Amino acid sequence: MGRSRKLYVAVGLLLPAHLLVLGASFLSPYDPDVQNRALPFVPPTRPHWVDARGKWHLLPFVYAYMALPDGFAAYEPDTKRAFPVRFFVNSPRQQPVGGTYSRYHLFGTDEGGRIFLLGTDRYGRDQLSRLLYGGRVSLMTGFIAAVLSVGLGLLLGSVAGFYGGVIDGAMMRFSDLFLALPWLYVLFAFRAFLPLRTPPRESFTLLIMIIGLIGWARPARLIRGSVLSAKNRNYVLAARGFGASDAYLLQRHILPQTVGIVVTQAGLLIPHYILAEVALSYLGLGIGEPTPSLGNMLAEVQIQSIMSSHWWMLLPGVALIPLVAGYYSLAEVLHQRAGLIHD
Amino acid sequence: MVSIGSSELGWWGKMLDILAHLFLPVTALVLSGLPVLVRHVRAAMIEVLSSPFIRAARAHGIPRRSVLFRYGLRAAANPLVSLLGLSLAILLSGSLLVEIIMSWPGVGPLLLQAVLTRDVYVVVGVVMFSTLVIFTGNLAADGLLYVLDPRIRND
To answer: Edge-to-edge, what's the strand order for the sheet holding A75-90?
Structure first.
């Protein structure tokens, strides 16, 4: 009962988040890198149903923003200029962002009006669109880096566990090095040897590579242990006695034993690596502008006045909470399931 | 590491000033590191409380609080101490970020500046320093465990 409820919590947190992120190009009203220099730090747009004369409307509308003459980034809704909210707007992107492309957007307004449901950042870019695309970038980093890490761990761990001897010893001492050092320091150290200014696509690849390649030691350790115990089971010895090759043994009998560990480790590493991306991008060492990611969006609140007066700039941090909590509880469920299968 | 007017504060005043500025970063770090330790001690405590010597202590009429804290917690403190080294590694990674965010002039901002200015020697030095801290922490944890837990002294 407790376990299935935990599974529901995990799925309930992760499924909506992933659907939002996958549908970013349809759900976001604007391109994440389109700037409105005249509208920095616009507070979230409120959809209205009742207009200035007290008349009700069936479909919501938004007011245009009017910058107040005194003060920076202070706005008031201009009640004279109302724009109805349109659904399934056809407004082609200038360029596809993050691999997908959608002609239609869930909502938008007529020309001249702007709808920023979560406000804008310092360049007047729509925070909602940036959050959706940035979530996609961060999740993709976490996911690919975890696959890389677990894949490398699977390769090295199974080789070390299966062949043993000198290979095993050398590999495990090498992994000790990675396990003993605090991982963020290692991450920084590796980052220090790589170029600082790279185009967005390359910095994305670079980030995935370092995050993924540094974390191989723990999955490798665990997989080695599981391979070691699987190697000496009677049916494996019997199969070897019948003349099975090493490759066949690994593929047919030994690696299936490690599935539980592989899946659990992946579930644990994804949120870990999402946070790694956030940490590096926050400090300006990860994904650079104009590509949004949860980390470099949060970097804007390094300036204390932005954090204290524009609360919507903190939303990328809020978005991380269900994401990380969902993945951790998923990993816990997987861990318990895997334990049950083995017993 | 110098507040405005700190030169006139004197020794004790400087100490208090540093402590006041330590409050937020330390709170952030403690809150991030605490749950793991609590989970481990909870598991150990459950295991210890169901063991025969606790039942014997209860049967002797030793007060409940004394059973829990003097007998139970002492036996359950093993993971707490042996996790000291590990949690030090996690805390050190966390403190890297906390120091940068809270402008604490520690190793974190130093490492970030070194990475941004491509000063590789400083980077290597800081990583070496972190390693040293962790080794010391692990050594201290082992020693402490030896002192606290008589069960591991047999071999």
So the answer is: A48-50, A56-67, A75-90, A104-109
Per-residue confidence (pLDDT) for residue A155, from 0 to 100:
92
Q: How far is B131 from chain A (nearest CA, A)?
A: 6
CB A271 within 8 Å of CB A323: yes
Are A182 and B100 in contact (CB < 8 Å)? no
Residues 6+ away with beta carbon under 8 Å from A138? A274, A277, A278, A293, A294, A295
The pTM assigned to this predicted structure is 0.86
d(C-alpha A320, C-alpha A187), whole Å: 21
Judge whether B33 and B85 are in contact, CB under 8 Å.
no
In order of their start, the domains of chain A are 29-124 (no CATH), 129-337 (1.10.3720.10)
**Which residues are CB-contacts of A185 (< 8 A; sequence separation ≥ 6)?**
B92, B93, B96, B111, B126, B127, B130
Find where tokens 């749950």 sit.
B35
Pick the most confident of A109-113, A200-204, A268-272, A290-294.
A268-272
pLDDT confidence of residue A342: 44
Q: Has the ipTM of the complex gone over 0.95?
A: no
Rounded average pLDDT over B78-106: 84
Token pair for A250: 């690994």
Contact A183 B93 (CB under 8 A): yes
- pLDDT single digits (tens) A126-165: 889 899 988 988 999 999 999 999 999 999 999 998 888 8
Q: Average pLDDT, whole number, for chain B? A: 85
Indicate yes or no: CB of B130 within 8 angstroms of CB of A192.
Answer: no
Type of residue found at A336: Q
CA–CA separation, A114 and A66 (whole Å): 12
Contact criterion met (CB below 8 Å) for A104 and A26: yes
Cβ separation of B120 and A196 shorter than 8 Å?
no
Of B101, B118, B127, the CB nearest to A185: B127
Percent of chain A with pLDDT over 70: 95
Average pLDDT value over all residues in chain A:
85
